[in-house]
Amino acid sequence: MRTLKGPGLFLAQFVGGKPPFDSFEGITRWAASCGYLGVQVPTGEASLMDLDLAAGSKDYCDTLRGTAAANGVEITELSAHIQGQLVAVHPAYDLAFDGFAPASLHGDPAARQAWAVDQVLKTIDASANLGIDRMAAFSGALAWPYLYPWPQRPAGLVEAAFDELAKRWRPILDHAAEKGVKICYEIHPGEDLHDGASFEMFLDRVDQHPAAMMLYDPSHYVLQQLDYIAHLDIYAERIDMFHVKDAEFRPDGRQGVYGGFQSWVDRAGRFRSPGDGQVDFKAIFAKLTAMDFDGWAVVEWECALKHPEDGAREGAQFVKDHIIRVTEHAFDDFASAGTDQAANLRMLGLGSRAS
Known about the structure:
Layout: E1 5-10, H1 24-33, E2 38-42, H2 51-56, H3 58-70, E3 74-80, H4 81-85, H5 94-98, H6 109-130, E4 134-137, H7 157-179, E5 182-186, H8 196-205, E6 212-216, H9 218-224, H10 228-234, E7 239-244, E8 246-249, E9 269-272, H11 281-290, E10 296-299, H12 308-322, H13 341-347
Parallel strand pairs: 1-2, 1-10, 2-3, 3-4, 4-5, 5-6, 6-7, 7-10
Antiparallel strand pairs: 8-9
Helix pairs in contact: 6-7, 7-8, 10-11
């Protein structure tokens, strides 16, 4: 077993146009002041890093690491969530997802996809230059509009979607493996990889690729009513990243899992600051510790009620309170009789016999 690293903070929800949130220097200093030891950096935020430079220059990456260290944190991982989303977009979402790409690519899905693939590849290269062996991403989605269809799906539709998804990601995964980096897909509604079953469908199509891993975020499982503790047991060997994000599910006579098109505040299922929702984090931290998870506990703050800066400060302490410092001794060592093999045999009534 090993002690989880943390607390870390995913910066995506905090980047903004005003200090200290408008620069890597400022936001890392602020994160450290909240009690964080690490930061997870979204590579699509130009105010935080120049992805082109990071992908091609180890010196630039050393400068980023040095800035973070001088401010009291380290870079835990890089994130290409947004770019990964654009690797696979169903046409129904073209207009909405154009906003995630440069304006010059709007209205051109093929060019947008090519740009997204290039961004993910550069995030892999930048991770390697930073000495980090894993990164985060969304998978994108082609089948998602048909999740709960009416009329029913034609036979083979989902299979064709996953075949295409795997075709798009396979060369990216191969590049990641060459660079010694694993892609941790956040299992997330809106993505074709939204639960364990869909992740397995993808793994089958990429031949159980060793670079295809999971980002575990229990909040999304609460809102799906999936057993998020059993999920850890099933996918222990594939889970390489962890988001500490809380949620609550409060169904009533008017709405349930689907939310009735209500705002986040009024939905039956909504995200909350760590500790304010229903996720059993004590069980999660114990399970991750027992399964020898070697990554960071990273707060991803999303809450329908609380101010983000309050959530960030509270989140750092929440993670500190939940990280289990691994013991080097068994609790009953004090009662050890200091026996050896000969004594063991005598205790079994076998005397000094060897068998």
